[in-house]
Prior knowledge:
This protein has 433 residues and is an alpha+beta fold. It has two domains: 2-178; 196-257 and 296-399, no CATH class. It has twelve helices and 23 strands. The protein has helices at 10-14, 60-71, 77-85, 90-95, 97-102, 180-195, 275-288, 291-294, 297-305, 309-315, 322-325, 410-423, and strands spanning 2-7, 22-31, 34-43, 45-50, 53-57, 105-109, 115-121, 125-131, 137-146, 149-155, 177-178, 197-208, 214-224, 235-242, 250-257, 260-265, 269-274, 326-332, 337-343, 355-363, 366-377, 380-389, 405-406. The strands form three sheets. A twelve-stranded mixed β-sheet has the order 18-19-20-21-22-12-13-14-15-16-17-23. Strand 12 (197-208) and strand 13 form a beta hairpin. The longest helix has 16 residues, at 180-195. The relative contact order is 0.09.
Amino acid sequence: NFKGVVEYDSSKLMSGDFSGLKLNGALKVNYGSLNEEATAIFDDKLYIGYNDNYYSFDTSIFTNIISLVSLFNNENEEKNIESAENSLNLDDLLNNITSYLNDIKEVETGDDNTYKFNLTIPNLGSINFDANKDFLLTGIDGNLSINGININLLATGVSQSVTDSYFEGVNNQNKYTNTDNLSNLLVTLTNIINDKKGSGNFTASINNLNTNEKIELNGDLLIDYSNANNIKEGKSELNINSNLLSNTNNSLKAHYENNSTYFILNKLIKGYVSNTSIEEIIDVLKEKTNLFTELNLLDKVNEVLANSAIMDLIKNKDFNKIHDIIVDFIVDNDLNTIEIDLNNKAFNLTENDSILKIIFKFNEDKLISLSLNNLCYNDYSANFTLNLNNELNYNESFNDLTNFKDYSNVSNIFNNIMELAESKKANLDYNVK
């Protein structure tokens, strides 16, 4: 709900120039239990004031949001990519606005000298304008659909003047924090999904808060299915170094290609396992054990999140819970970072009000790293940082895949071991090298 002043220069609008469009007023959001109010000013950029926080947004952010959301708004990947390519572009819309305005049609004339006009925007929808006998606006209503996102417009109690100006601009632009990096984040995420490839290096640690024991990991990862239909048909790599076992250095290098996983463990074991073999092992575990039932990640997540603030928000649509979840939102243009602080307690991860910090770091207009700091669960705290890059540098150890030993028959061995455990008798002879 918006209540305020909208000012425009009709001659500029008719020529596709939106520099004369301005607004100033109060923006209210009422949805379920959520009842929030902010100040909104549009004068080339959108300026929002909320709870003593002030941010400015470039209009490109709306195009970027729509492009990203549209990727997840269709049923299959091909439609997703097509939808992203054809998603709403505000520049194109503004460039064509003159032809749209010229097509406005009078659809109804009231008995009391009132008028109704219709504006149809191709591929988006239509907007109706009510006017009095002097052709001054009195109301607006319409329905738009942008890449599956439905938007309903309704403006009542409109009072229009062609002589007086009621618009008040931004008094102090310096108090508004520039959020251009938010657009850069959306663009980066959209490009990664569209390009179907990405790479980076990571560091991670898990700390026992009682014993101060620490597990540390670092490595590289790479995903590339730009020339394939899906991730399963593409290539990927994961290289991990850790102190997981007895605080000694351990390494695992893995390369996925041609429906097989090639691996090098501590420079001692070098081989590969086919997808079929891995699937057979999983099928045996499902059939003969309850391991996958006990390890069902989705069930575990649901168990942890039950009765949490985040589940109240999702299931019960209690949008007031967002205040229990999000502690702070910080845009630091000096450090080139965006930080979102969340309360671990809101996810039932801990009984204490510890803060999970999600930090996005940028270099000019590109997202270069993502960090999760102080992710707590019971007596443990975890930190993770992923540094992104655009280079697809495959590990030289996997240049010649013909030198890797085939361990795919491990599924047969595993199956017989499980049958042995069930029958409690054996007549097996294996020679494993």
